[in-house]
Amino acid sequence: MTTVNLPRGRKLHLDTPIIMGILNVTPDSFSDGGNYYQTDSAVMQAETLLNDGATILDIGGESTRPGAPDVTLEEELNRVIPTIKAIRAHADKELSNCVISIDTSKSEVMRQALLEGADIINDVRALQEPDTLTVAAQFTDIAICLMHMQGQPRTMQANPQYDDLFADINDFFQQRIDACKSAGIKQQQLILDPGFGFGKSLAHNYQLLARFDEFNRFNLPVLAGLSRKSMIGNLLNRTTDERLAGSLAGALIAAQRGAKIIRVHDVKETADVLAVWQACEQGISNER
Ligand code: 7PJ
Fold first, then answer.
1. Which of 2, 4, 59, 99 is most buried, most CB within 10 Å of its CB?
2. Mutate to test the pocket of ligand 1, among 193, 205, 266 (most ligand atoms within 8 A of CB)
3. Which residues span the domain enclosing 52?
4. Model pTM greater than 0.90?
């Protein structure tokens, strides 16, 4: 469980939590304002995220922010494929060899991204869209993040309701794990994510955070993504660019409750927080 194999013989070491840095290549991304639409600036941003301490770059061309417009296949490809190509072709080896995750729900975006060297599929729709299971099964040693969402991005925050929040999410995970296995994907390739903010009320989100460790029952790595989300903003009454401290608190709590991958915008600050926590853990074990 602590190591996940990736293409080209590489591995993700998850003994301690690692950081997935968000690289949005969208003109309407709510927190970056679409600053990285151009490939050049996306590559520069990729370099910064890695230097700041990210292990994975999560490249996304579709905004799944509540109410965001749908993106056509062509548009999404035009955003993410040139970015992946430019990173893989870069002279800086640390950059060209980095672990790339493709944040998409479309099978053709997955296919082209994986052909260009993406290592991880990060799908907020958990491989439920047409042909996605088939495409994912065709690539050896990729990792796949299956995220839970209730409803669809456009309407999911209208009135989310659950009979039993944890049972519903765990049932969903089991069903998607089974679907992946039936398609020929190995269980060890999978990462789970309860999906903060995706069809969840403020109360639901904090229940998830409080009992995040319950998702460890599958013996698969669990990812936490709450960076700058409304669960921080609505709790604190903060605009998107005032959510750093709240996001850091959330990241630390998730990590302490077993999250192995922390998906964030603010990589440098999150790396500092995790390093202080890890030093403390070391201090505790050195005392024994
Ligand atoms: C998540 C994501 C998340 C995973 C987004 C945002 C919205 N992928 N993609 N988990 N959120 N796996 O970053 O605010 O929570 S897009």
1. 59
2. 193
3. 3-287
4. yes
